[in-house]
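haha ok so turns out i had the wrong file open the whole time. this is the CORRECT one, sorry everyone. sequence first:
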Amino acid sequence: MFMTTVRKSLALSFAAVLTAGLVAGCGGSSNPSADSGGGASKQYKVGIVQLVEHSALDAANKGFVDGLKKRGFEEGKNLSIDRQNAQADQSNLQNIGQRFLSNKVDLIYAIATPAAQTMASLTKDIPIVGSAITDYVGANLAASNEAPKGNVTGTSDMSPIREQIDLLQKLYPDAKTIGTIYCSSEVNSELQVKAMKDYAESKGLQVETATISTVNDIQQAAQSLVSKVDVFYEPTDNVISSALPTLLGVTTPAKKGIICGEPHQVTAGALITYGIDYYKLGMQSGDMAADILEGKAKPAAMPIQTAKELRTFINKKTAAALGLTIPDEITKDAEMVD
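then structure:
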């Protein structure tokens, strides 16, 4: 009788354990750290390559990491990130790309056009998500914005150039000539300057341009233009953005304002922009990367995304230094930067 009771007790206990296991097994998990193969956490490796250090690209970098975290990919838990900065050097980009390939990263996040172009030239297999890239098609990174077809997708920082030139004319209604300086090796800058020139000339404005190769050329280029133009327009050029104070050292004493492509240039001292929040653009890229890592999508079929939010940013100190009064219709919805 005693043995019969023990057997019944063991059988009931085994059934209870089995039932609990089946219930737990059916529960599932939407967390990307859950791995169906044996219950171990899957670890993801992401390589981040940033062309050069400046505020806009730094913000796109941070936004990407935060975007991944929001989706459950968190550094130190189920994600390891290899962060690299090329310091605007092509050989560095090549070495970084080879490092990512050797480490067999699951995904590459490329910040700025030259960074994405180098990564794309090194691998057709590893998914690449880009940001701070103006034109994926023009840079030969995608077949089209709607269907990239390769291993590269991401977010575009194409500026609202027409609105920016309209803003310039509201601030400088008597302006006849716009000056612009950009790096001749940046495809994104060439594209923006061409679009700006076409639109400005359609409105009766002349455009004077000067090209540079490195930050060391900025001062001379600015001095060659400053007496010929009424105001400056600067695209989201990485070389200019990384050394904007050099340009401002020529333009501000001459009382020539800079209407620019993005808010971090305003923070650095440019006068005004109607543009993109690069942190939020980076978060969009992080969200796209999460879809790829989760297996929900592949870059080939993921449309290029554009910024979802645009705002006016004004540098109050620069406006005062230029002796410029900005109309209320512009300031009422703008973010003022000290």
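Residues 1-30, 34-40 have pLDDT under 50 and may be disordered.
again sry for the mixup
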